[in-house]
Amino acid sequence: MTSRSTPPDSTIISAELTPDELRRFELLNNYMELLHSGDYASRSVLLEEHPEFLELLGCLESLDSLAIPFSEHSKNTVEQNSINSVAYNTTEPRPFGKYELQEEIGRGGMGVVHKARQVDLDRVVAIKLILSCQFASKEDIRRFYLEARSAGRLKHPNIVAIHEVGEINGQHYFAMDYIDGESLAAISHAAEFTAELAAECIAEIARAVDFLHQHGIVHRDLKPANILIDDDGQPFVTDFGLAKVFDSGDQQTQSGTILGTPSYMAPEQAAGQNSELGPTADIYSLGAILYELLTGRPPFKEENPLDTLVQVLEGEASRPSQLNRAVPRDLELICMKCLEKDAGSRYQSAAQLADDLQRFLRREAVDARPSGLLHKLRRWTRREPALVSRLSALLAAAGIVQIAFMFNAARDVSYHVTIMSIFGIWAALSFLFQWMLRRDKLEAVGRYCWSATDAALLTTLLITTGESSGTLLIGYPLLIVAAGMFFRVCLVWFTTAASILSYGALLWFQTRQNIPAHYPAIYTAVLALLGFMVAYQIYRVRVLSRYYQSRK
Is the domain covering 182-378 a CATH 3.30.2420.10 domain? Predict the structure, then answer.
């Protein structure tokens, strides 16, 4: 695997391997050739066409990045690979130019950071090295140097300063201040933040971020892991790998490319609208960090990046006081103003955010104001879309039934009460299932129970009204489509099965109706086909989500 010599004769391989094994061998061989040739576009296409091999191919790439290409001049390359190795855990100082690498202190998607000693000046610094430099693309190297240039032009007491950037034996690096402390992520997980301490911390970070914005830089990846806290409690902004110089005209990052950490990125960033990102995107991230300090979790954090991105785009975060009753009202208003979906409704500068946090700390009136009724209603609809969609449908149906009853000369009161009771029970159960969705231990059960109950109550309604072949049958396809809102393939199949069984029960209860035999067969086939289409589309999106997660 680590050798780059000519592969064994294909005739011998064909004789020893089954057709399926031979296909896999050819796939792996093609993948390694693309990796070594630097053809990253074709490599990405291959990964998309064969998602079942994502984990294996990722392991191959990691192993290959550790390979030492032996040659007559391999001494420098051996040193480079030993420095860049994922297995670098030794505490022995290792020479690297005029530096001595002492220990690894951090690792991200593109680089690894070491604590080091600068020998000529006898001082402790941090050295960031680009990961897998031997196979780094031009874009990776460009972003690495962009990070160094972005941070190197800044001088602020709460921003990690860059001292030097360069290349040693083909290994790109830059040296920066060493902060003796921990990341905000590590500290927040180890201890709870009081409201005042959280406000003080975010206010200082906001001042540093405002300094960035004044110099034409949007960070785009603000999160607790990229905030370092020294032994004196001072925060430092670091990791400018995704920074955007918004007054430089740099168009390298294409629109539609999602960059950042899903739980902390603004909706416009999650939508891939990179050309439109401005300071308000960082303000959203500051609000997400404040939210986590107050509640112990970010506003949105689902099982995988796809679900998190969907929530960032369409969902609405719960108020911090719902998760932590000790959160003061004014600080909650500040936090929620940062997390507005509309960038124009947030603070328009990080300085405004810092000023409002200072007003909170001084017990003065803050600028952030409670939302109006319409705004609260809009937030509620985004926070609980499944409940809102069902209640809207039930309300519309109940309204039509009520109007028809009022204008019907031959009114059957008992029949009308029965129909309205079904609607009332349906609405009450919807509130119950929405409550279950908010509980981690009951969430999965709540989704399936809600789906089964919807199908059962729709069937009950159809049996009561005698509509086994009327327009109300559109309800079953709507239930299948609505199940897709949860982005769960199994739930879509479950809802499809429940709808088909419920339709069968409806036909059994109303056998006296004169329905052509082929109608139920066609309708059942349509339900099954619709379930397959919705489930398959969700499956495809899930595959893309796993690919995105493997690339992070």
Answer: no
